[in-house]
Amino acid sequence: MATTSKKVAKSFTDGCPSISLLLRREATAATAIVVDDGPQKWTVIPSVDDNKQKKTSSAIASLASNTEPLPSNTSTKGIQIMLRAQTCHPLDPLSAAEISVAVATVRAAGETPEVRDGIRFIEVVLLEPDKSVVALADAYFFPPFQSSLMPRTKGGSLVPTKLPPRRARLIVYNKKTNETSIWIVELTEVHAAARGGHHRGKVISSNVVPDVQPPIDAQEYAECEAVVKNYPPFREAMKRRGIDDMDLVMVDPWCVGYHSEVDAPSRRLAKPLVFCRSESDCPMENGYARPVEGIHVLVDVQNMEIIEFEDRKLVPLPPVDPLRNYTAGETRGGIDRSDVKPLHIIQPEGPSFRISGNYVEWQKWNFRIGFTPREGLVIHSVAYLDGSRGRRPIAHRLSFVEMVVPYGDPNDPHYRKNAFDAGEDGLGKNAHSLKRGCDCLGYIKYFDSHFTNFTGGVETTENCVCLHEEDHGMLWKHQDWRTGFAEVRCSRRLTVSFVCTVANYEYAFYWHFYQDGKIEAEVKLTGILSLGALQPGEYRKYGTTIAPGLYAPVHQHFFVARMNMAVDCKPGEAHNQVVEVNVKVEEPGKENVHNNAFYAEETLLRSELQAMRDCDPFSARHWIVRNTRTVNRTGQLTGYKLVPGPNCLPLAGPEAKFLRRAAFLKHNLWVTQYAPGEDFPGGEFPNQNPRAGEGLASWVEQDRPLEESDTVLWYIFGITHVPRLEDWPVMPVEHIGFMLQPHGFFNCSPAVDVPPPSGCDSESRDSEVTESSSVAKHTTTGLMAKL
């Protein structure tokens, strides 16, 4: 046992790909594999047979008996010591060690060597527990320690002694059988409160999901590119276009979506787009500047073989564009600006936020940070500390759950560009390691993320999430025009963000928390346009000509924010409902004799089918999530309102193929009653999904009631991109998003207690820009100005 432990500990520190090689299944002797992770040890019991699991009990008992007891001088202060069932919060993302144990447990459960050899790992994530478990953890085990909110059972223990074990959820693809399965693995921590505790993995369930394809992995993308570039007919087709050097060729595999039975999930398919660099000795060259068109390639990704190939049309490569590159001046052949002075963000006393693990406190806000390979950043348990009213919940969970990018050119290959960047690939999987001074400024707290790769090894993206404070100009101001007396407050916000690259585009996702109680969701779009080639003299109305022989098709970007709200809901409560507000003009008559009257009209969204709504800027439409049992000082229900930003709907006919899988794009807002498993608007597996309307559009057919419910908002916001020349060679950031604002949640402005800025007068004088021929300053009082 000890020898095995040392071997596995070493393999884990080396990157963990070989853990499965050390797993043994023995019919007569128990085998446990221990992974050392600091003070913790993770034990993998490679069996799903309960009888075989019993044989490991003596080994576990032996390990448990060797753990150090709790310190004898520990003060219980009248209550028993809380022995946690895990040392991390139930919502914390899986650690690298937990992922390794989950992977090893699934491998060990393989029925035959052939099955085990075919196993590939698409995703290993925390199976988020029931909200009651989270409430229990927050009450007694972890910050914010809100035990006063927990209901107490008559005669029951005042303080629980443990939490349920954490569980991992794995999406597994078998490359040999082309089957996808979902596994649940329990990660049990024994005596975690004492040094020397250990963990074990146990398979709770495994189910094969028929007729689906999981997201394509980065390793598959790389293998697909190599297969295409080594295919003799492809090399011949490139020679026809004057390209002999395959090192110049870039092959970007795209998921095929679903257009006909040819795309059915019985095969794992990819349809590559091809590009060609012009300089082999310039690795920083913009490779997307020369698209290769006229070549049709279809790849069987399961077997890594080309099943369709046709050189349909000889489209000349676009000429080399001298403006194609975007690197610094010395490498792109240009000159950088010389008048950009340094700008430093200095916080001499440190930041105003406090961090405890993944728990964040800032300016009365508190929440937890999570991360998944599919969604990227997740914000849990959002609440506001409101004086004597205590900690007031606002949302259980906030995240971006899907992203769809449909293109508007009906020509091949552009009509097939309908990327589901979260469901077919993964926003979190493609996240960057952020760099101080480049991606974020100021005093920064970074969070790492851990993922499994295709073969089951654990990879870490360091500095994946950035948390920092930002100056945000003016918070509020008023000057009394009679006295000239002014009060002003400076605004700052707490920003939590991550950035990902999906092929040619970059997306930066932000959650901003403000001192006045607002929460802003923002996406910044940048990167390189997905281009097409034009023949000499050709013009296409479905895009913009960017350079000779080069054009950018029109397209749209849609983002889906999923918000499980909890406005003023204590643990166990589901007292939220949603009203729609439209501002209307009063009809002419005795109540509107001056024809200037307008008012806000509220409509309660009583059920899911009634709650499929669209934005309407003409009526200033917005939606308010209200608590049905909590009122403010005027007797009105407390609430938070969703304020739309600029938005759009799909510019496609109702029979558009991509709308089969993206029926959720047909409305800007959907409201559902929370149900486990309803996590992604296009369903769990949108890749090659032949079933129309799966996901959100089918869930609402139940027409569940929404009055006093556990409410989930699905807000779909998009931008229509008609490319400009100014978007080339790299697109300046486009901003899109929405706001959650308190609406009757507070009794007055929560920002009135923000202190005045310190030393702003002297600071402004020190930094004032003067000119030798300055204009005379006019000093007038507010009254004189009015006169």
UniProtKB/TrEMBL annotation:
It comes from Solanum stoloniferum. Homodimer. One of its GO terms (cellular component) is peroxisome. InterPro entries: Cu_amine_oxidase, Cu_amine_oxidase_C, Cu_amine_oxidase_C_sf, Cu_amine_oxidase_N-reg, Cu_amine_oxidase_N2, Cu_amine_oxidase_N3. It is found in: Peroxisome. Residues 343-751 form the Copper amine oxidase catalytic domain. This is Amine oxidase. Pathway: Alkaloid biosynthesis; nicotine biosynthesis. Belongs to the copper/topaquinone oxidase family.
